[in-house]
Design a protein that fits this description.
Radius of gyration: 25 Å
Strand content: 15-25%
Shape: elongated
Distance between the termini: 98 Å
Mean pLDDT: 87
Helix content: 25-40%
Number of strands: 10
Structural class: alpha+beta
């Protein structure tokens, strides 16, 4: 009797969706992460092949669970929008995030940021921006020949990939859309939308008032 041996099976590798670290250490850091992420979502809302995520684990190497980072914000051109538990690069046509943002807090200073910088450089991030909302310092790096080059003057800098502009003021960092609009918080965006709604209602009311006046004078509106 010939005994058949069961084929060996390779255990499935589990890539965790969380690294156990909080998304942010304080409200200021969280607000900036959300502000950048949501405004970039708005900027690229009409482009189906731009994926944007906040605090999502990125695994660049298949089979290496420990090789990962969770950028505060990352932008991937060439990949569809949609939900993901993590960004597993080999399942994404091997396209690495091209742009990464990190927002500093007291808990993630020099040693951690050096490790992140080396990771992003090694795995092909083209643009890397770091902002410290406490000191108002912003740094930028561009990948040149497999190594990051410091952007010497970030004030007025326009991102090659995103086309957004960085502007430093005495009190804050301001980021602008390609058309000149400023990145706003969710509350500010809602206020702008409400103002536009009210202005539209006023304009419609004025239009109807004009029509009523013309009709009262016996003017045939169909001839206008």
């Amino acid at each position: 009797m010939v005994q058949q041996l069961a084929p060996e099976t390779t255990p499935e590798i589990i890539y965790p969706d969380s690294d156990g670290q909080p998304m942010a250490d304080n409200t200021k850091q969280y607000q900036w992460i959300v502000k950048i992420k949501e405004n970039l979502e708005i900027l690229f809302a009409s482009q189906d092949d731009v994926f944007i995520a906040g605090d999502l684990l990125w695994y660049p190497v298949e089979g290496s669970v420990k090789t990962c980072q969770a950028p505060d914000v990352m932008v991937v051109f060439g990949r569809p929008k949609g939900d993901r538990g993590s960004y597993q690069q080999w399942k994404e046509n091997n396209i690495a995030p091209q742009v990464v943002f990190e927002i500093l807090s007291r808990e993630n200073r020099t040693p951690q940021m050096i490790n992140k910088s080396l990771f992003y450089q090694r795995h092909g991030v083209e643009e890397y921006y770091i902002y410290d909302p406490d000191t108002l310092e912003v740094s930028g790096f561009i990948l040149t020949e497999d190594a990051f080059t410091v952007i010497e003057n970030i004030n007025g800098w326009i991102s090659p990939r995103l086309r957004i502009r960085f502007q430093l003021t005495p009190d804050n960092l301001e980021i602008y859309y390609p058309d000149g609009r400023k990145f706003l918080t969710s509350v500010e965006l809602n206020q702008v939308a409400e103002q536009e709604r009210q202005e539209k209602e006023v304009a419609i009311g004025q239009y109807h008032e004009l029509l009523a006046k013309l009709q009262a004078k016996g003017i045939d509106l169909d001839t206008l």
